[in-house]
């Protein structure tokens, strides 16, 4: 980090103090991870905003444990204090610590300076990529989805023996069902197979089963409040508009679910990401009403795919030919009159073709998962 950047961050940068960290622990923040030594006390000069902090233990045999982490919005010059709990191999939150001791630590944070590593900003590209990966995620969204202080939960204990197996184990439907809702994670619940109003007539059921615009509209109105911004000063994070609720927060949940998979190795995030991608690719009418939502959706999706290592894409994101099916579904639903959407889709399509050597098949009738196939109602009288 150059001296000018360091001086600027000295006035605004935050601190994450990690007390009693065990040696050989893998510790990371955002895109950066290290194996820590006995003198490690945390990270300093953290740029204000959202960050993901994670760690995993290493056994005496050198086996890496399950990664655990939490999201936190750092304020300027905030001092976040965490302490290692060797009994459960996890961090104690400040609520579990002596408040007098915590305050004493905060007032003497400079005494830990030489044992704290600076947030890596050289090269700056990694921080820029992190900001772009998470730019729609709000503090309110993190609190709603991850109410346990932003913590991303472990895979349930009964499945922990699966964690060291090949990533192809996610093809096992038992695993997908068992981790559909992990403890402490509250992603927005919706059913892609029930994408029409209660009591709808047969033609309405057919219409909104093929076009998911009604379901997406309901989520925007009831969960994301369809663009209404709440000018609120959050007492916890002191950020104006942190509870602004609109379609950008829907995109924020798309980002949060993806980061939970990419960084936290959490497959509940993967399930939610797939559902949100499938929903947004299937909204023909809404694309005409809210083209900006879908322009920004394609921006988010392309950047997410660009962040994927090739094996990650091959083993996880393209499982069941998911990417190919969704891309063709998106193409089919974009109205030809929406030139901006057509142009943006073309760029997305060529990006995927070039990055992942994706071959365009002549037959667009890909097999769909039985559970996600649209409901078609026979309107003929018997």
From TrEMBL:
CDD domains: Aar2_C (cd13778), Aar2_N (cd13777). Residues 13-147 form the AAR2 N-terminal domain. This is AAR2 splicing factor homolog. Residues 363-382 are annotated as: Disordered. Belongs to the AAR2 family. One of its GO terms (biological process) is spliceosomal tri-snRNP complex assembly. InterPro entries: AAR2, AAR2_C, AAR2_C_sf, Aar2_N, AAR2_N_sf. It comes from the Eukaryota. The lineage of its organism: Eukaryota, Fungi, Fungi incertae sedis, Mucoromycota, Mucoromycotina. Residues 187-360 form the AAR2 C-terminal domain.
